Amino acid sequence: MDFDFAAEGPKFAMLLYGLVAFVVVVGGLLLILDGIPSLLARRRERRELALAAVGGAVALGPGRRRNWEWLMAAGFLFPAGLLLLIGVVIPAIRTLLLSFMDGGSTAWVGLKNYSWLFSQSETLITLRNTLIWVVLVPLVATTVGLVYAVLVDRARFEAVAKSLIFMPMAISFVGASIIWKFVYAYRPEGAEQIGLLNQIWVWFGGEPKQWLLEQGAALNTVLLLIVMIWIQAGFAMVVLSAAIKAIPADIVEAARLDGVNAWQMFWRVTLPSIRPALIVVVVTISISTLKVFDIVRTMTNGNYDTGVVASEMYNQAFRYGQTGQGSALAVFLFILVVPIVIFQIRNLRKQRES
Amino acid sequence: MAVNSRGRRALVLTSVLGLVFGAAACSGGDSGSENNASSADCAPYEQYSGHDGKTVSIYASIRDTEADLLQESWKKFEDCTGIKIDYEGSGEFEAQLQVKVDGGNAPDLAFIPQPGLLKRFADAGKLKAAPDATKASAEANYSKDWLAYSTVNGTFYGAPLGSNVKSFVWYSPKKFQEKGYTVPKTFQELMDLSDKIAAGGEKPWCAGIESGDATGWPATDWIEDLMLRTGGPDVYDKWVTHQIPFNDPAVVKAVDQAGAILKNPKYVNGGYGDVKSIATTSFQEGGLPIQDGKCYLHRQASFYANQWPQGTNVAEDGDVFAFYFPTIDPAQGEPVLAAGEFTVAFADRPEVQAVQNFLATPEYANGRAKLGNWVSGSKGLDVNNVKNPIDKLSVEILQNPKSTLRFDGSDMMPAAVGAGTFWKGMVDWINGKSTQDTLNFIEQSWK
Amino acid sequence: MTTTTPVATAGAAVSADSPRTAVGRVRKRLNSPIATAASIVIAVVWTIPTFGLLVSSFRPERQIKGNGWWNAFTDPQFTLQNYQDVLFGRSSSSGQLASYFINSLVITIPSVLFPLAFCSLAAYALAWMNFKGRDWIYISIFALQIVPLQMALVPLLSFFSRGVTLGGITLLPAWGLTGSEKYIQVWFAHTCFALPLGVFLLHNFVSQLPKDLFEAARVDGASHPRIFRTIVLPLITPSLAAFGIFQFLWVWNDLLVALIFAGGTKETAPLTVRLAELAGTRGNEWQRLTSGAFVSIVVPLIVFLSLQRYFVRGLLAGSVKG
Fold this sequence. Notes:
Chain A is mainly α.
């Protein structure tokens, strides 16, 4: 156990640099932005004074104000925008281009990768599975998170109770998949079961089953997505619980004076009050569900008809050397998210109107 | 392939650990190049000198204690030449090497276990041709077949490093003795023994092909081994290079032969259940019931030695051992399915070539073998330097002139087939899909 | 998000610990025993897999592979060997786990701070500044969430190792980062990938702050940076804490970004890389995986528990306290 602290020195030095950089970048940006309006204001004042002296128009003012509002916004958006451009936008454009190229990204092949996509009978299965995932995971995870948040609100041991549900979030996707693989583990009849699900099944008089092979009614896909629900319910619970706590008491009081019962209270007061948070939760979980691939990869690698679009994308692009086909799948994923984007636009419109 | 690496990243026997720790203690002080190693000690490294202070990065799939042995094996070279070797092992080697190369961050050297992947990088113009010295020592120590795996369009890219033999059937010498079974010498004897065990109400075979995101590969090894035995090496070569279609009758025959064992409910799956349980049993656990006498035979590569629990005696007279998977037609010689990794370079700086040359020599092979848990196909390897009985047996088979060596076929096919539809097809096949349907599915994916 | 909810419109200051919240009442009326029972059922179902993992992590290898963890209660056999293996390892060249622990911290702290700052700045601008096209910018950033991380690895890596050239002109040379400088790459990558979700989440919370607040401040002549610092930041602390936690968990548990940008050596690789190595070495080293999982869970749990109090009052508490 001879731990050499000196060897760790450069790391801490880097951390220090990082923190200094953080302070300099963020602080510096705010300082500059702070300076701009006063600088502009002073200059404008001077100009206005000059103009006033000449007896000119003061009408220029408002126009100018909108002008530096724009400049200010650019300043606020600059760091995020720059990084998004480098780290996300350019890669996205590149992916789009690659989807029109062959496996080794050397020649243009037009729409071949897309026709490949739709000529595969398996694509239909992955699409079906992706839809099952994106419907069930947000629905169940949010429901469980909400119900639990309501139930433990202000209960004794609330912090502990919440930590229990939150715990799966602290485990990586791969780790969680391995835990659940163990839950579904199979040993033949007569042998000692090591998987909890089969043990319970046997206790109730069933024959041990190979759960991940059960393709009927896409049962194995459901068993896989339970892992995602297990992880995401914690996220839903945390956000929704916080939203619930923020519901003002006077609304509740008013409703109570109206004589509503508990159910009505939940549906008419609680739910509408937390609607924004609810939407955030559902949208966020939906998108991360569309992107999830580690769970499928770790548990079945898409065998037994359990593949999803994202796992197939990873296989094509990084395992089979078919960058073009993988990119086409990524673009396809982007198309799947369009309905959510439209929903978001409508939301934003509504918000602006009010 | 994903596979032999997966197996080889194995835990080493405890005896090796003492050695590693001892070595680590000695190498504690980083004395750099100007250490006090006597010049006599460094004499063999004289030819690699002149690159003092340079760094060479190596990327491979070998990790943990196996990686310790690797780094130990070139320690002396580093001390004497002053070249620093930065080694990094990753479990996601294949996918990440691609990302690193495409991202302009390629390592100087990589140990690639798949000739198919090697070809992809060579075709893309990313690889550097092997230096002359590497080529010369590879030609002196390896058969033509072996060299062909790292030759693309006439250019030789790198010498083999480690190897492993896949044509093994694991068994328990102890249990065989108790029951009075003998090690079968022919394929017929193997099937007779299976019938005999099955007649007694026991399951002779056990298997497991689950391997996370590489699920299915152990079954492809079965097919390859039987392709070599039912079709012979020539048909095998045509199959691997797609000169005959994947659903050719010759392939159907081999797969059905494998099915006669793997899909025979009387034969499998000892200790785990029915035929389908093969699909969900992990390859690491596949053969373990042999110890408890719940099954008697398990076809798996030499690296399966690392899967037995600590304290298991892996020897001809021990708890478990392996015998050569016998051939069907002795007239065809003794086909051996093998795998291994190749040292290829993404840079051609002189110090990189020095390291590459060094790793290709028999001196390196012998030095590495002495550290234990290693097999090489190099003819220059002295079998007495090899430690474990199973590694010894592997080296003997690799060096046997009667052996007809063939590289793991799935590692040579395009990854979309060899690491994709072939694996997937085998899983479906175990799950009840017919041989013809399975092969048709794989064939249509091979463009 | 819509602001037509009582949350944002109710500007009245209300004591947060008033027992008369909607939910409190629902729970009371719902016949407490049933509610309690239901919550216990959910908690148990959610905890059992992790609990099984915890029990397994103390069982000897042979037991773990031989029978279910619940047998540990009838036949208790426990060992610390698994933790010993994970914490002190058996590979000399890989070094101490503590070293990886430090790497994880060095990677995680800036990778959480930068996105927090950049996202809240952007979210504020998108929510409360008036300029042309802001809705489109916001929707675009939102949509970028779907871009798969994997597809961004190659171009971003290329950005660091080759720099930027346009038409033969070098706009930015290769960064040439070595050793512990590689942390910069990791911070950069994590920050990039966190932005779409972060901007989306924080925008939702920032945009729900009451409008009068800003109007009053503007009338007083406060500049945007000033409003951001003195009004917005304190009010969205709970949401910052929440997003901070999620980002922390993501970075802490990340393996992919770390492997590509930090590499797998003990100089820079985080805990996850080492744990994956430990467990993957033999693939079925379940016993090491169990203990490894717990070692890596500890820090996120501590962070969660210590930050929990920040948003116990509610992510939107700010609007209520207004």
